[in-house]
Amino acid sequence: MNGFRNNPGGFVANDYDSQLIESVTVRRNRLTNAVLFGANPHQRRWMDSVRLFLFSVALTAVVASVCVGISFVGNLLEEQRERQQQQQNSAIGIGIGIVHQPAGDPRSQASPWFPHRPLGD
């Protein structure tokens, strides 16, 4: 009736088949892990932790360098914008005629290299 006289609840063959398939799957997974990561499971766990730590350190370095690069480029753009505004303001001042021409002796005006000294000294 059921296939076996000693098994009143069902087929024993199905249980054996499922056990065999499960044991083959477990063995295959163990062999795959041994080939990929080595035979010692404790060393494998330790190496996984070290790899994770090194990966996180590398990722942190990349994120930090990206932040520094963004800050550097932003600072360069801001300085360039300030220079352009200064040039525009000086061009507007020259166009209107606001530039101050000192009268009298040219030696009395400040030196461009040493603004605190007059030219004649």
Descriptive account of the structure:
This protein is an all-alpha fold. It has helices at residues 12-37, 41-96. It has two domains: 7-39; 40-91. It starts with 11 loop residues before the first helix and ends in a 25-residue tail after the last helix. 0% of the residues are buried. Keywords: Membrane, Transmembrane, Transmembrane helix. Residues 98-121 are annotated as: Disordered.
SSE topology sketch:
Blueprint: H1 12-37, H2 41-96
Keywords: Membrane, Transmembrane, Transmembrane helix
Transmembrane segments: 52-77
Region (Disordered): 98-121
> What share of the residues lie within helices?
55-70%
End-to-end separation = 125 Å
List the helices and strands in order.
HH
Mean pLDDT over the residues:
76
Any idea how many domains?
A: 2
Label the overall shape.
rod-shaped
The value of Rg in angstroms is 41 Å
- Uncertain spans, ≥5 residues at pLDDT below 50? none
Which structural class fits the helix and strand makeup? mainly alpha
- Using DSSP, what is the number of strands? 0
Please give the count of helices.
2
Estimated share of beta-strand residues: under 5%
The biggest beta sheet reads:
none
Region (Disordered): 98-121
Transmembrane segments: 52-77
Keywords: Membrane, Transmembrane, Transmembrane helix
